[in-house]
Automatic annotation (TrEMBL), chain A:
SUPFAM superfamilies: WD40 repeat-like
Cellular component aspect of the GO annotation: actin cortical patch; Arp2/3 protein complex
Protein name: Actin-related protein 2/3 complex subunit
Biological processes per GO annotation: Arp2/3 complex-mediated actin nucleation
InterPro entries: ARPC1 (IPR017383), WD40/YVTN_repeat-like_dom_sf (IPR015943), WD40_repeat_CS (IPR019775), WD40_repeat_dom_sf (IPR036322), WD40_rpt (IPR001680)
PANTHER family hit by this protein: ACTIN-RELATED PROTEIN 2/3 COMPLEX SUBUNIT 1, ACTIN-RELATED PROTEIN 2_3 COMPLEX SUBUNIT
Automatic annotation (TrEMBL), chain B:
Coarse class of the protein's main subcellular location: cytoplasm
GO cellular component labels: Arp2/3 protein complex
Keyword annotations from UniProtKB, A to Z: Cytoplasm, Cytoskeleton
Role noted for this protein: Functions as component of the Arp2/3 complex which is involved in regulation of actin polymerization and together with an activating nucleation-promoting factor (NPF) mediates the formation of branched actin networks. Arp2/3 complex plays a critical role in the control of cell morphogenesis via the modulation of cell polarity development. Functions as a component of the Arp2/3 complex which is involved in regulation of actin polymerization and together with an activating nucleation-promoting factor (NPF) mediates the formation of branched actin networks.
Family: Belongs to the ARPC5 family.
Entry's localization field: Cytoplasm, Cytoskeleton
Protein's UniProt name: Actin-related protein 2/3 complex subunit 5
Pfam families per the UniProt record, alphabetical: P16-Arc
GO terms, biological process: actin cortical patch organization; Arp2/3 complex-mediated actin nucleation; regulation of actin filament polymerization
Source organism of this protein record: Gigaspora margarita
């Protein structure tokens, strides 16, 4: 009997070591030919894809302190970066001089900025900060600058993460005061009045459409709206993932692993989480119940080298290992915490590839199919 | 030079207090003496289960409804003593099966008591607790331990 071999079109996992130290943030451009990363300092490095590797083409040095977050708007091709120096810059590419030109954004915050994301229509962006507020920034045509409005109440501590709802008005925020909230970031003059959503109808600026928390109170590291926007998932430092539906239903998953720092919905029923366990994992909704499905990174078996006397002394000399078979490397691709996962390929409702970056300085592109 | 001894935090107009950040049971805390009475009543039940040999029921009763609160220290100490009695009287061979039958919430509370017991090695047997810790971590994973460290509701 002949067996039919189906040719699976699976792209191999791409692993790029872009920095010896941590990668603080990463963002791809629209066609994934360029990536902007922060190599754990006050600069932003832009790389161009060439063959299987990446070449450094620009180093953007305008910030004074660590750049905490980067986002690349796919349509308008603008970069926004925010930093611990309490500033954010919007960068526009000038193809004549082949340089990125920065424009300062007036955030008016007195603490570090922690996270930034463009809105779906790219006419606004939100900056989370340690000043217990979120700055919603939009371009003021009259004065030709980026200005901001603050979402302040009732945030009581540093805002750690943000996610925009697809309607360009609602914004979810995960905070160190153990709460995940959904705000309305409706800016008069910039936004049209949005159609009613399950989260609420009349939504002036700074309305709270929902406030959620875990019972064992951990900092909320990551929030993410589902592809339709009707559900919100958030992960806390207490190793729990909570999925809240706008209708009121809540599901709590107590995981047996270390906390997750980043969440991403890949379909309306599947969720990828990554964090201190150094591997992306999949959570799936089976029937009515959300549960842990599988680990994305299977992990490679270590090749055991011959433990000859020469090898043992060599290891002792170069790595400080006395016994021959002590393992110093994790058998997963990432060798340290994954801090950020972002969609790489696919539509919002069906993401097929994701990219991850972490404290080990690796940028990895995963194929989920 | 007196400015060096000024407490700048009290001058900050937007201070964050513990009560703003986190409240037990949504504000309706149990009074310390009521909590102590509940714990003592629980202790009687637990001792009955132990004398009858029903160690699993004894454990679930002991870790049920812990006396969370900001000033229920007596009740907490008493409850810890009761839980330690139960943990010491369960045979080492029974531990894996008992731990597997606990719900996720019960596992978290049990881990909290294990750490509470290990914090006072002069009062409680750490070797027994270490064994319980090992068996519980096998079933519940490190997430359970993380929840013990982050949860503000201490036992």
């Amino acid at each position: 009997m002949k067996k039919m071999l189906l040719s699976l079109k699976m792209s191999p996992t791409e692993i790029h070591q872009l920095n010896l130290g941590p990668i603080t943030a990463h963002a791809f451009n629209k066609d994934r030919s360029q990536v902007a990363i922060c190599p754990n300092n006050n600069e932003v490095h832009v790389y161009q894809k060439s063959g299987k590797g990446w070449n450094l083409i620009h180093a953007l040095a305008e910030h004074d302190k660590l750049v905490t977050s980067i986002d690349w708007a796919p349509e308008s091709n603008q970069l926004v970066t925010c930093s611990q120096d309490r500033n954010a810059y919007v960068w526009t590419f000038d193809s004549v001089t082949n340089k990125w030109k920065p424009t300062l954004v007036l955030l008016r915050i007195n603490r570090a900025a922690t996270f930034v994301r463009w809105s779906p229509n790219e006419n606004k962006f939100a900056v989370a900060s340690g000043a217990r507020c979120i700055a919603i920034c939009y371009f003021d045509e009259e004065n030709d600058w980026w200005t901001s409005k603050h979402l302040k109440k009732p945030i009581r501590s540093t805002v750690l993460s943000l996610d925009w709802h697809p309607n360009n008005v609602l914004l979810a925020a995960g905070c160190a005061d153990f709460k995940a909230r959904v705000f309305s970031a409706f800016v008069k003059g910039v936004d049209q009045k949005p159609p009613p959503t399950p989260w609420g109808d009349k939504l002036p600026f700074n309305t709270i459409c929902g406030e959620f928390s875990n019972d064992s109170s951990g900092w909320i590291h990551s929030v993410s709206f589902s592809p339709s926007g009707d559900a919100l998932a958030f992960s806390g430092h207490d190793s729990q993932i909570c999925i809240v539906y706008a209708g009121g239903e809540t599901q709590n998953i107590r995981t047996s692993s270390l906390p997750y720092l980043s969440l991403l919905w890949i379909t309306e029923e599947k969720l990828i989480a990554a964090g201190h366990d150094c591997v992306p994992v999949l959570f799936e909704k089976q029937g009515q119940q959300w549960r842990f499905s599988k680990v994305i990174d299977v992990g490679k078996k270590k090749v055991v080298t011959e433990a000859t006397v020469f090898n043992r002394f060599q290891d002792w000399d170069s790595k400080g290992i006395r016994e021959g078979s002590k393992e110093i490397e994790l058998n997963t691709i990432h060798q340290n915490t994954i801090t950020s996962i972002r969609p790489y390929q696919g539509s919002r409702h069906d993401i097929s590839n994701i990219s991850s970056s972490g404290i080990d300085g690796k940028l990895v592109v995963w194929d989920l199919k | 030079m007196s400015y060096r001894s000024t407490d700048v935090d009290i001058l900050d107009e937007d201070q964050l207090f513990q009560k703003d950040l986190f409240t037990f049971a949504g504000g309706s805390e149990v009074e310390p003496d009521v909590a102590l009475k509940n714990v003592q009543a629980k202790g009687v039940d637990v001792r009955n289960f132990l004398t009858r040999g029903n160690t699993e029921k004894a454990l679930t009763t002991a870790i049920e409804n812990p006396p969370y609160g900001s000033n229920t220290t007596d009740a907490k100490d008493q409850n810890t003593k009761i839980v330690m009695e139960v943990l010491n009287s369960i045979k080492a061979t029974d531990i894996p099966s008992i731990v597997k039958n606990l719900t996720l919430e019960q596992q978290d509370v049990l881990m909290k008591y294990i750490y509470r017991g290990m914090a006072s090695p002069e009062l409680y047997n750490s070797a027994v607790l270490l064994n319980w810790h090992e068996k519980l971590t096998e079933v519940a994973g490190v997430g359970c331990i993380v929840r013990v460290t982050t949860d503000r509701r201490t036992v």
